[in-house]
Each structure stands twice: as C-alpha cells, then as structure tokens.
Amino acid sequence: MLDTLTRNLSQTTSIEDLETPCLVLNRSKVERNIARLNGHLWALGVALRPHLKTCKSIEVARLAMPGAYGPAAVSTLKEAEQFAAAGVRDILYAVGIAPQKLPRVQALRSAGTDLSIILDSVEQAEAVAAASAGGDPIPVLIEIDSDGHRAGIRPEDREMLTAVGRAVHEGGAELRGVLTHAGESYHCKGIAALEAMAEQERAAAVSCAATLRDAGLPCPVVSVGSTPTAHFARDLTGVTEVRAGVYIFFDLVMAGIGVCKIEDIALAVLATVVGRRPDRNLLIIDAGWMALSRDRGTAGQEVDQGYGLVCDLDGIPYPDLVVVDTNQEHGVVSLRAGSSASLPDLPIGAHILILPNHACATASQHDCYHVVDAAGTPVSAICPRFGGW
Amino acid sequence: MLDTLTRNLSQTTSIEDLETPCLVLNRSKVERNIARLNGHLWALGVALRPHLKTCKSIEVARLAMPGAYGPAAVSTLKEAEQFAAAGVRDILYAVGIAPQKLPRVQALRSAGTDLSIILDSVEQAEAVAAASAGGDPIPVLIEIDSDGHRAGIRPEDREMLTAVGRAVHEGGAELRGVLTHAGESYHCKGIAALEAMAEQERAAAVSCAATLRDAGLPCPVVSVGSTPTAHFARDLTGVTEVRAGVYIFFDLVMAGIGVCKIEDIALAVLATVVGRRPDRNLLIIDAGWMALSRDRGTAGQEVDQGYGLVCDLDGIPYPDLVVVDTNQEHGVVSLRAGSSASLPDLPIGAHILILPNHACATASQHDCYHVVDAAGTPVSAICPRFGGW
C-alpha cells in the first residue's frame, strides 16, 4: 500500500539525499510491531482497534487495520473526516464529546461512517440524545476512569454510571458500551506492575458493563486499551476490543518501561550537523524542538534520553549520545552526564538519526514520512500526514 | 493588511462560533507590542529586524516589518522561501548553514532575494566560498557565542574568528558582519541581570567586529538580539541591528522574567470544556499538548503556569486556574497547588482562552490565526501560518 505513494522519488533516493530535518519510517519494523500486538491479542481472543492519532496517515493506517473499513480509533474529528474520506467506515472518536461537535459527528454518520463517540456525564448524554432525535441514534460508549488518569466515571460510582446509561438509552441514542484507557500505565515500573494495570483496566471495564446490564441497559462493547496494557494483558475475559496507537512505531518512553526494545523503534528524525564545539564536547544539529517536539517523556524514567537518542544512518545508537537541549531549530548533541564514551567525530554536514521520546508528539511536528523498507535501504515511499482539528 | 484575508467569515463571527481548539490573536495587543519595541530601539538609534519564526504568517510579518521588503530574520529555508514569495527581499537565515542547504540559498538569491546566512567554522566558510565561486558572493555573518548558549565562536578566540573571516572574505563570499543571540537571557532574573546580559551581548558583538576590522576584514553589520535583551538594552553603541521575534505576541515565559505583563500576551488557544470532575476539582478540555505544545518554559520560573494560564473569553485570567496536565487531545484544568481560589463553575461546552508558555511553540501547532481587533470583538480575519522546512 505504501508503494502507491511515490513523490519525486527515483529508485536510488537515499535518506542522505533528503532535506533535513525530516521523518524516516522503517517499514519492516512497523510491520513487525503490528504483527506482534495482533498476535498477542489473537491468542487472547480479542480484536484490536488501532488508534490512528499516532500515525495520522492512511497508508500507515492500512498496514495496521485488518481491512479497508477499519476498525479505528481517532482523537480528533479531523482525523475521523480524513480517514472516512479514505474509506474507513468503523471509527471511534475517543475524546469526550462537546455538544458543539455533534453536527460534524452527524455529518460523518449521514455520509455512511459508523462513527461512535464517548462521554461521561448526564449533561453530555442529554445533548447526544437530543441530537439523535432527528432519527439517527448516535452510538455512545461511556468512559470509565479505571486509574484516576483523567476523564471518566469511577467504576464504584454505579449510580452515576446507570444514570448516564439511562440518559443515553432512554433518550434515544444508542448505548453501545463502555470504554476505558489506563493512561497511568505509562508510569508503571516492571512487568508485574504492567500486568496488574492491565488487569485493573479489564476489571473496571467489565464490572461497569455488568452494572449497566444489571440495570437492564445494553452494553455490547467493552473497550480497553493503552499500548503498555495491551502488550501485558494476560487475560481479557469480558473485553470485546483493545485500543492502542503508539505500538505501530514505538518510542523511547515505551522502551523505557519495557514494552519494546530500542531496536523496535520504527520512527526517527533525520538531522544534519550544522556546528561543532569540541571545546564544549558538543555538536549542533538542525533538529530542535520544532522537529523533535518538546516531549521529555523519559525525564522521569531510569534512563533519561534527553530530547532523543542519537543513531548512525543504520539506526545503531552511538554510545550515550543524546540531544541534551533544544531551541526552535537547533539541537545540542552531547554525551549523557557521567558517560565514559567519546563524542563521535562527525563533520559539518554529517547526518544522524534521532529516536524520539514520544512518537505521537514527534510525528505530529512533520507533514510526511519518508519510508525505507529496512535500515540502510533507499526511500521507497513518501506518505503524507495531516494535522489540525 | 490583516483585513485582506477573510475566509468563511461573516460580520458577526464570534470566537464562540469557532471549532476548538484554535488560535485567537488579539490585533491591538500585537500592534502595541510592535510599537513598544520599535519605539525603544528608535530611541537607541538602532533598527529592528523582526524574527519571523514566531509568527510564520505574512500578514503578521507585515505588521512587524517597516516595509514590504523587510528586513526579516528566519529560522528555516522554508520560511525564507515563503516570505520571499510574498515579496520580502532582505532575509537573514539565522541558523548555522549546512553545505547541503546552499543550493536552496542560491536559488532564492538568484530569484532576487538578498538572503544572508550565518556560520562559525572554517569548514562552513570554505563550503560557502566554493558555492560563491559561481559568481554570486553569498553574504555571511559570523556567529559569536556571547553567553555559552549554543553555537558560535567565543569572543576571546580571536584567532578562530579571524581565520573564519579570512576564509569567507578571501574565498570570495561576502563577509557582511557578525551576529550573536543571547539565548541565556531567557533564564535571567530581574532587571539588573537583563540589562547586564544586553550589555554582554552588545560588547561581545562589537569587540568581534573590531577584531575583524583590525585584521583588515570588512564588518559592516553588527547584529544582536533576543526579545529580553532587546527590551532591556540601555545602550547599543556599535550595533547596527537588533533581532527579536516573540515580542510580537509575548507569552508567559516573557511575563515571568518581567519583559511584559500578562495582559500584553496577544496569543491564546481557545478550548472547550468536555468533562467535569468535581470529585477531583478539575475540568477536562479539548486542548492537549497537540494544541498547547509540550513547552513547560515556566516550570523553572517563580510562578509555574503549568501548560498555560486559563482566562475567560475577555482574556481575563481566572485566579490560579492553569492547565496542570496534558495528553494528546486532553487538557486537565485545575487550581494551582496551594490556591485558596475556587474552581469556576464552567459547564460542558463552555469556552476558555489559554495563554501559552511559549508563543513560538504553541503557534507552531496550528495552521492559522483567528484575529480579533480587541478582546470580545468578532473575528475580523483568518491568517494562515505555514510549517515545515
């Protein structure tokens, strides 16, 4: 699918021919990452709904979805509109709905997309029910707060859950189920903690589904997921679908909590050395926070990767070499504090690859992926990304 | 100039009619901020070269530049190309040049733009001299490291400075002058420290210009600048131009170091309440790091503004209300730790304005500005922004 998009590419375009900074995506790693999570969930008997907020690219999405129609999760209505225009039909908009956004939801549904939404209050349920009165019952998942991360109804608040469920169902919208996201899993340390968080996420969603069913309300869908819990779930009894997004690319945060290895990270920023300061043991590159993002997700982890881990063009990390600071279009590359390694002798104009802390954030700073089939091979495709809301 | 761009606007489009999240720009504050710095520098007898990396919009740039042709500074060749296409003729690309980028520099110059570049090594100077051999001497400023911030030649390293100057001049490029940027001024505390940093920046640039002239080399331009030092310079003897960018919008970081007041900040993100958690004393909004950026520039300041300070639609801050956490499309709004204020009673669907930590970073997450002439007035224009490299 990626091969269909080739823009200004000759057979021999190397990544060294690209304007920097830019994104380089390793297709074989993407395919391996996708196969890994699908295999894990297949064995547990649950389907995967890929979250497309990380890739924001129809070509990458098609590698992750089981078929052209989906399923998919998105984080903005812009994503829903873009993927719907590309033929995806089963889309979950996984951010609490604002009433003002319902006309765009309805427009997508009228055009043939099975777009579902989420909410966690009677206020929202009443607004969605009112919008559904026009004849199209909007499908709703009720958001559950399984870990105190941000939004949702607490699983023990059965009264609120039932009240929201009734407002959706009896108001005339479609009560499709419950959804939770264990975002706190990003802060877990060790396999046991990740397994426990996955079970906590499952148990919360399943118990809320039971609460709704006990109240005589429908709850066909039980949706859970985050990349860490998806990989460390050992049992998904009662769950009907798992959502995850960053697993497609992986990143240094995921490596830091043990969900992947450094060599699984499929996304990197290509940059050029534009200054050398041997007096201060550092290099200046043309990738600052505009190209890398300001995300410092590894700052609280055991190994702080700065603004990214520096690799050669084969994707092999230089020992202890990280982006220690950034300005808008400048990156400062140096050795990790306390390192006994030496700064590689990279001349002005040399290229490096930088692995990102957080793939979603870094990818969002760019408008396309330069795809290579494997490390060191020519650029085989350029896939556009979109942004905005 | 802004009025020329009206896209899908009726006379009565209020910011409450906009899709969220989005950028709102207060034109009267922009004009006041621009007039303030120009007035200060006029009194010191030095011209301002606006750095357009913050606005990335030709309409905003035209408010800041003295005329249609410039002068301007940019941080990417994409900016140079976009502004040149809009008629700007005097452009400084203020990031150390990589030899691979010289063909784009030359293409812009051939098309009639006086594009100058910066460098800080003999290696780069030789590459630029070689490129100039085709008959167009590329204008070069030598970058000086006046504060240990990142790139540049240390002022005391006269031998290196002269060697680079000779490689430029005798190699056949145009040695146009010296340039420095006191980026460390962002970490200054108090007026005396800011004034001292401005003087340090001036003295470094002027002494390096003298070094070059003493060696028989030309140095017509002495370029200094950062938004803090530009505002706190008391004497600019020997300086020919000052560069600054974020002064057009200002932000919470600039307010935190005393360069502006909170009410001078012209840029805000409009967001919608999409969840309420009275049990945890917080609100969920539809502006996460994708809309606000991950920039936490106030984290090390006296007042930590989280991911942004929350205001009503007139731009008046709610007491102690900040965005305490973000995910990709979720913001968590709560009171500052230790606050005795109470959470405002904002319903689902309510709008708020969020002042940014760092205007450059927040603006870069969006593709346009929704301009209002003053707080509370209708949207008078939509000005596109561009990104990329």
TrEMBL record, chains A, B:
Regarding protein family, the annotation reads: Belongs to the DSD1 family.
Q: Which part of the chain is the D-serine dehydratase-like domain?
A: 266-373
What SMART domains does the entry give? D-ser_dehydrat
Protein's name according to its UniProt entry: DSD1 family PLP-dependent enzyme
Would the keyword Lyase turn up in this protein's UniProt record?
A: yes
Q: Which organism is it from?
A: Sphingosinicella rhizophila
Keywords, alphabetical = Lyase
Q: Which PANTHER family does this entry report, sorted A to Z?
A: D-SERINE DEHYDRATASE, ZGC:162816-RELATED
Lyase among keywords: yes
